[in-house]
Structures are given as C-alpha cells and as structure tokens.
C-alpha cells in the first residue's frame, strides 16, 4: 500500500512514517519545515519528502492519505484530497489499525514527562529482552530513533492529549486502547484547543474508559487533577506511586539532585539507582516506568538495572557543548512546571555555579499568554535570564522580566541574543536553552561562537 503523509516532519508523523516503511508499505510525505532529528531519520529510512502542500504530490493517487493534526481546511493538498475523494485517515487511527491492533500497548500520558518516561519504559523492556516496538515524541539515546515496530507483542506509545485531526477533535490517545496506562500528572496546557482543565480531564477520562478491567493504570498518587478525573469512573485496577516514602510504591532521593534514589514499597527499600538524569520529576518518571514495566512482566531487579543504564533523551537537559568551562544544555521545557523542575534539578547538581536560562516562548499556550503569571516564578532558580521576544508573540515578556528584576533581559533579535550571551558567559556557567522548537539553532550558534572566542584568546 502506498501511504502519503501530510505533515510528515513532526515527531509523531515522522515516527509513523518509519513504522509504515518498516511494515512494508511504500511511504511518501510532505511538510514545510523539516529539520533534524526527524529529517535525518526519514532520509535514513529512504522516505521521500515533498516540500510544501501542492496538489501535485497526490499524483498518482496514493492508496491512503494520512493527515497530520496541524493540517487545516484550505491547505491545497487537503482540498485536493477531499475533492478527489481519496481515502484518508488520521495518524493515530492509522497507528491503531495497522500497528497497535492485537498488541500489548503500554501508553504514557500526562502533561509533563511523556517523552522521557516512554523512553525509559521502552529501555526497561528492551533490557529485559522483550524487544518492544515504540513510538516516542523524541529520540532516546539508547535506540537512536523515535520509532520501531519491535519483535514482540509489546508496544510503548507516547500518548498525547492533543487533538487528532481537523476531522477528529478527540485527543490522539483515545485511539490507542492500552492494556497498561501510565498517568504522570495532569495540568492545564494546550490552551489553543482546551478552554480549561476540565476539558482536558474529560479527554483523559475517555482514555481511562478504554483500559480493560484486566489491565492496569499506574498513576502519580499526589495529583489532585488526576484524583478528580478518576473519580468520574474507573473500571481498572490502579497502582499509585509517590515520592518521599509512604504506603505503597514510592521513591526517596539519596542525592538532592535526583541522580541517586531508592525505590520502596510500604517504606521497605527494594533497590537503589544511580543514573545520569537530574531532578525530582525524573525520579517520578523512572518510578512510573518501573511499575508499568513490572505489569508487563519485568522483574523489579531487572528494571532497576535498566534505569541505571538509561542514556537519556535528546533535548531533555542534553549537554550540547562544554566550551572553555561553559556548559550548554538544550532542553524541551516550555511549561512553567517543567521549567521550574528542570532548573531545580540543575541547581541541586551545580551548587553555586551560575545558571543562565535562555527561553523561547514557542508553545501555543505560552504564545497565548496563559502562563504569564507563573513564568517568572518558574525561572527563580536561574541567576541570569534571557527572554526571547519574537515579533508575533502578542504580549510582552517585559512583564516577566519585571518580576525577575536586574537578572532578566528581553531581546527581540536572535543575533542580538547570541551577542549578549557571548559577551556575558564565563567559565563554570551552566546555560540552559529552553524551547519546544529549534530556537533558530541558537545553542549550536553559541557553542561555535564560544569556541571561536576561546581559540582567539588562547
């Protein structure tokens, strides 16, 4: 079957393309912006990508068009698809029918931590010899790709609550029908499609309704929004977990930065983990992944070994440079909660070293100004803050900068931002670039400029 994917450059649709190719289908696609790591993955998979959305890409007609959720009415290829009566479907629906059907699906849902937790879960299953398939919204270092079919019944999917397609406004994850569901947390986000938290909770409850009675829901135990959602009705056993001890499953930090912790059941220590990740949020992610893997038959001892060897995920506090004593991190954090926990973990690790936070407000929710009241506080662990103000943001970041005082600066030009950073950074600085996009390549630009400065002064 020839499958053509509209919007192939996103992490979900690009991963779907790789799964379709591995399953033996002829795959092509189109997008307007394509950059690494997805561009390189698609190239390596031998998938042809068309630039733009002109109708000619649908000649000759594919057997099926898979429509990404950023496609809208009025896009020429979409209009041609409809006018010609071509067979079309959404990405989540295609995944459900052609990949997930008949498999043991382990879905990871929540506002924060889905990519890291999905990667951890896939790594734990792989370590145990279960050869899982997976579709993850990032690139796990232990696999080097964001998707694979796998060689067993087990399939790990990052379960996103964003809407499915212009013709299907349900959340993506209602298509997946997991046997094991991991709920990390639940907060208000995606303000472009959800009017309030209650609307998101309803979608999460639709997901809960699909989990069978012989399945398992693993959930963060101290999350009030999850409590409210599950109170709407639950027909599946629930296994809660918390941090800092207590009844049931918990984790306790041994190192303040989260790089060492122990796993407990009813306050009885069962094992210890030392790993490369930082922060209480990642300890929570790890514990949830361990319990989900345990439901799939992985002994806790094997899971602990796997977590200790976990290589991390691209763009999750990923070190992208260490030049003249300045450490540069690329991080996907774009919600105040994620920003705060990331910086807290780095502060616990770096001690008195200066933390420089560089933020691009790129997500739809951020661009709508929903988080303007909490953004300043989320950056409080940083010693210096640079806020990038794109021309089309619609609200002024100077409101946030005013909260932070003299340590914050607002710049509306990437070249100027780069110059300001180079002029200020010094040895031992920990620099965190935070954006859910490419940030105009700024982390790598700053790395190159720092290297050039170091060479010229050597």
Percent range for helical residues? 25-40%
Oligomer: single chain
CATH architecture of the largest domain: 3-Layer(aba) Sandwich
Number of strands: 23
Helix-and-strand structural type:
alpha/beta
For the record, what is the CATH homologous superfamily label of the largest domain? Mur-like, catalytic domain
Which spans have pLDDT < 50 for at least 5 consecutive residues? Answer: none
Round the mean pLDDT to the nearest integer and report it: 91
User: Strand arrangement, largest sheet?
Assistant: 8-7-9-6-12-13-14-15-16-17
Computed CA radius of gyration, to the nearest angstrom: 22 Å
Number of domains: 3
CATH topology of the largest domain: UDP-N-acetylmuramoyl-L-alanine:D-glutamate ligase
Architecture overview:
The protein has 15 helices and 23 strands. The chain is α/β, with parallel strands linked by helices and 458 residues long. The strands form four sheets. A ten-stranded mixed β-sheet has the order 8-7-9-6-12-13-14-15-16-17, sandwiched between helices. It has a six-stranded mixed β-sheet with strand order 18-19-23-20-21-22, with helices on both faces. Helix 1 (11-22) packs parallel to helix 4 (91-100) and helix 14 packs across helix 15 (442-457). The chain is globular, with a radius of gyration of 22 Å. The chain starts with a strand and ends with a helix.
Helix/strand layout:
Layout: E1 2-6, H1 11-22, E2 26-31, H2 38-44, E3 48-51, E4 64-67, H3 76-83, E5 88-90, H4 91-100, E6 104-109, H5 114-127, E7 133-135, E8 147-148, E9 154-158, E10 163-165, E11 168-171, E12 180-183, H6 197-209, E13 216-220, H7 224-230, E14 238-243, E15 249-253, E16 260-265, E17 268-274, H8 280-295, H9 300-308, E18 318-323, E19 326-331, H10 336-350, E20 355-359, H11 364-367, H12 372-378, E21 384-388, H13 398-404, E22 408-411, H14 414-424, E23 430-434, H15 442-457
Parallel strand pairs: 1-2, 1-4, 2-3, 4-5, 6-9, 6-12, 7-9, 12-13, 13-14, 14-15, 19-23, 20-21, 20-23, 21-22
Antiparallel strand pairs: 7-8, 10-11, 15-16, 16-17, 18-19
């Amino acid at each position: 079957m020839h499958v053509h994917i509209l919007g192939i450059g996103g992490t979900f649709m690009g991963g779907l393309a790789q799964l379709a190719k591995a399953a033996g289908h002829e795959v092509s696609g189109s997008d307007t912006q394509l950059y690494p790591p997805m561009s390189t993955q698609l190239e390596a998979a031998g998938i042809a990508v068309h630039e733009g959305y002109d109708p000619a890409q649908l000649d000759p007609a594919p057997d099926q068009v898979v429509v990404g959720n950023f496609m809208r009415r009025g896009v020429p290829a979409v209009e041609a698809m409809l006018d010609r009566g071509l067979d079309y479907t959404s990405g989540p629906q295609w995944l459900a029918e052609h990949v997930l059907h008949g498999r043991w699906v382990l879905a990871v849902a929540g506002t924060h931590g889905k990519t890291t937790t999905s990667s951890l879960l896939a790594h734990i299953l792989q370590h145990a010899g279960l050869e899982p398939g997976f579709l993850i919204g990032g690139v796990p270092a232990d696999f080097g790709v964001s998707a694979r079919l796998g060689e067993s019944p087990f399939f790990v999917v990052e379960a996103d609550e964003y809407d499915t397609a212009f013709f299907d406004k349900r959340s993506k994850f209602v298509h997946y029908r997991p046997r094991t569901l991991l709920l990390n947390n639940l907060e208000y986000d995606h303000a472009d499609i959800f009017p309030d938290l209650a609307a998101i909770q309803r979608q999460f409850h639709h997901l809960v309704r699909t989990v069978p009675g012989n399945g398992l829901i693993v959930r963060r135990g101290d999350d009030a929004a999850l409590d409210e959602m599950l109170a709407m009705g639950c027909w599946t056993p629930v296994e809660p977990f918390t941090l800092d001890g207590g009844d049931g499953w918990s984790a306790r930090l041994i190192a303040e930065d989260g790089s060492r912790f122990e796993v407990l059941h009813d306050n009885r220590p069962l094992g210890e983990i030392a790993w490369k990740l930082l922060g209480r949020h990642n300890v929570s992610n790890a514990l949830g992944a361990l319990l989900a893997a345990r439901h799939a038959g992985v002994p806790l001892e094997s899971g602990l070994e796997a977590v200790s060897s976990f290589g991390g995920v691209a763009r999750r506090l990923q070190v992208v440079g260490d030049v003249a004593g300045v450490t540069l991190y690329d991080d996907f954090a774009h919600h105040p909660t994620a920003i705060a926990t990331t910086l807290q973990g780095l502060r616990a690790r770096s001690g008195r070293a200066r933390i420089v936070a560089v933020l691009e407000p790129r997500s739809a929710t951020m661009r709508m100004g929903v988080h303007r009241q909490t953004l300043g506080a989320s950056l409080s662990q940083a010693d210096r803050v640079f806020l990038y103000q794109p021309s089309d943001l619609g609200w002024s970041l100077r409101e946030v900068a005013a909260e932070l005082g003299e340590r914050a600066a607002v710049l509306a030009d990437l070249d100027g931002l780069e110059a300001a950073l180079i002029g200020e950074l010094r040895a031992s600085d920990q620099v965190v670039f935070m954006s859910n996009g490419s940030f105009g390549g700024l982390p790598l630009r700053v790395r190159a400029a720092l290297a050039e400065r170091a060479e010229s002064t050597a």
